[in-house]
Amino acid sequence: MVPKNLRPLVPYLKRYRSGLFWGGLCVLFNNGIWILFPQVLRRAVNDLHSGVTRQKLLTYSLLVVAIALAKGIFQFLTRWVVIGISRDIEFDLRNDLFAHLERLSYSYYQRNRTGDIMARATNDLNAVRMLLGPAIMYSANTIVFTVGAMAFMLAISPKLTLYAFLPLPITSIIIQYFGRRIHERFERIQAMFSDISARAQENFSGARVIRAYVQEQAEIAAFEGANQEYIRRSLGLVRLMGMLWPTLELMLGAAVVIVLWLGGRQVLLGKMTVGDFVAFNTYMVQLTWPVIALGWVINIFQRGTASMARIDEILSQQPEIADEVIGSSDHRVIGSSKNQPSLAQSDQIAQSVQMTRSPDHPMTRFLGEVEFRNLNFAYNGTSVLKDINLRIPAGSSLAIVGPTGSGKTTLVNLIPRIYDAAPGAVLIDGRPVRQFRLDSLRRHIGFVPQETFLFSDTIRENIAFGISREDGEALLADIKAAAEAANIAHDIESFPEGFNTTVGERGLTLSGGQKQRTAIARALLRSPRILILDDALSSVDTHTEDKILNHLREIMRGRTTIFISHRVSTVRNADCIAVLHQGRIVELGTHDQLIARNGYYTDLYNKQLLEEELAEV
Question: Is residue 58 part of a domain?
Fold first, then answer.
């Protein structure tokens, strides 16, 4: 019966069952050969009394060497096969864990700290590998050798064997007691390690904030406190392990004393030969390491089960947003980046129409019309969007303005299904977004979020990030065209290494405006049917903003564009402007229409005009 915490490992073990079979054979041969060693000593010692010849002495010597050599070969093969399989399973499990994390919804990362996830993917995964490798190998060796040795010991003297294994029930109770305590303490240690990893990750990522607020010493002290707690818990486990091994050795020592006392008397009384006595004691000595290893295996086993439970907490999480209809193997995007005209050919792009296959719609034109129909949305019971009814015709542009917290970002996040609205509340080309496969839907959308994220890679790779591997590598000409459209090409070419310049973590070496423009270039390179800019021009000046918008108007002609901005200058030329307030659309129309209504939009416009006039003074 497989323990509950280890059941997720069963499919991985089944995958390597042939290797485990050969590993099991190596274990049998390894221990089977080693069990014969005391029998050779037994015959040799008995022959000493009856008179040993040079030929017999040479034979026994060669047998001992042959046994040692054969044992070494099979011991090597055992480690090579079993430990090798544990490494293979670790490789598979790490890949599966990473792939699963990639599929989890955005909300999962809002609830869990990055450092905790990293601790589970590293430290806990290593503990599971130790369980699958050394723990299985030494457990198999201990069981096989103990059973084989016991059979020979019973053949020599059943009574002496019974006395030798008298401490076994006590040993079993000790193992259960210590095993439970080790498991509990190791779980607490791993939880503390996750806290330390999370604190370190947050400090490294927020290094500039910590220095700006002169909190270096406070953070050092907090980290030291967490580290001391980790050491305290680890020392508690070490003390527990320090008690387990001596206790097991004490039980073994008691068994050896019993054997020496009772076995010695049987030899003196002539009930047992000296050879039998030597062989019996040799078995007892050979059992020393398996018994000691048992304590080590218990430690590894309890650590591994605790760690596997922590990893399974991630693996058991299901994505909150997933495809509702499972398509066939040919369900894929037609006319993806590989087959589309390059961004440099913007006139042709504006006329192109991408298409997608789906199970219920054999061939559907993806025009990019977006509609919100009786939309209501809430976070954890808190209403964010209320009674939203809005239609954005394909190829048109919509600007969304409103105060902070009015639900602007939430609204656009529902289009690529970062969050899921009620069924039928969000539609594209008249179809609910849930009827599109996620990869197909998102491949047609270029999204530039509020928080710009760049990877620790070259600018070229950051811009080309949105091009999938199956679409092929993005051409440098297309990357430059996208950078030109985002008005970042001149800045990039001024860098010593141009597009091959490596940016720091999260784009640390670039300014806020440069990061935003790089993110815009990344979205444009995909030639999306729908482009969403979530306040993506907030870090650029108005002059640069005008240049970017002029490029966008040319490139995105015939494509659906949605802007979120606090600047009237950004949104005034949009085909339609929606004003959100407390989750509702309170105003809707063109710039001139909204100015004429003298509402929130007019107040925003007048306020920004005043700010511009004051700036000129």
Answer: yes
Confirm whether 167 is domain-assigned.
yes
472-478-480 Cα angle (round to 5): 135
Residues 59 and 172 in one domain: yes
Q: How many CB atoms lie within 10 A of CB 293?
A: 19
pLDDT, greater one: 180 or 117: 117
Q: 508 in a domain, yes or no?
A: no
Residues 365 and 304 in one domain: no
Spatial distance between the Cα atoms of 295 and 245, rounded to a whole number of angstroms: 6
Cα(89)–Cα(376) distance, integer angstroms: 46
Q: What is the CATH number of the domain that holds 360?
A: 3.40.50.300
Q: Which residues contact 601 (CB under 8 A, 6 or more apart)?
A: 401, 568, 577, 579, 587, 594, 595
Please tell me what DSSP assigns to residue 368: -
CB atoms within 10 A of CB 500: 12
The owner of tokens 């107040």 is 603
Question: Any idea how long the chain is?
Answer: 617
Q: Tell me how many domains the chain contains.
A: 2
The strand pairing partners of 458, in sequence order, are 502
For residues 384 and 300, state if they share a domain.
no
d(CA 489, CA 463): 11
Assigned token pair, 285: 């000595």
Per-residue pLDDT of 201-244, as tens digits, reads 778 777 778 877 788 888 888 888 888 888 988 888 888 878 87
Same domain for 427 and 295? no
Quote the domain boundaries for residue 606. Answer: 347-452+532-616
Nearest to 585 by CA among 372, 421, 415: 372
Which pTM does this prediction carry? 0.74
Of the pLDDT bands very low, low, confident and very high (cuts 50, 70, 90), residue 364 is low
Instruction: Encode pLDDT of 240-257 as tens digits.
Output: 878 877 887 788 788 888
**Do 134 and 255 fall within a single domain?**
yes
In a domain, 274, yes or no: yes
Picking from 272, 292, 315, the residue at the C-terminal end of a domain is: 315
First to last CA, the chain: 81
Give the pLDDT score at 284. 85
For residue 424, pLDDT beyond 80: yes
Q: Tell me the two tokens of residue 559.
A: 């494509």
**Domain shared by 31 and 174, yes or no:** yes
Residues 305, 409, single domain; the answer is no
pLDDT (0 to 100) of residue 469: 56
Pair 59, 200 in one domain: yes
Round to whole Å and give the CA distance between 42 and 36: 10
Q: Which of 103, 99, 107, 108 lies closest to 442, judged by CA?
A: 103
| Bridge-based pairing state of the strands 354-356 and 382-392 | unpaired
Return the biggest CA–CA distance within the chain.
Answer: 122
Kind plus residue range of the DSSP H or E element containing 238:
helix 216-268
Beta-bridge partner residues of 333? 356
Q: How far is residue 567's CA from residue 425's CA, in Å, rounded to a whole number? A: 29
pLDDT at 278 over 80: yes
What's the mean pLDDT when you consider all of the chain? 82
> What is the per-residue pLDDT for 74?
94
In the predicted structure, residue 540 carries a pLDDT above the cut 90: no
Strand partners, 581: 584
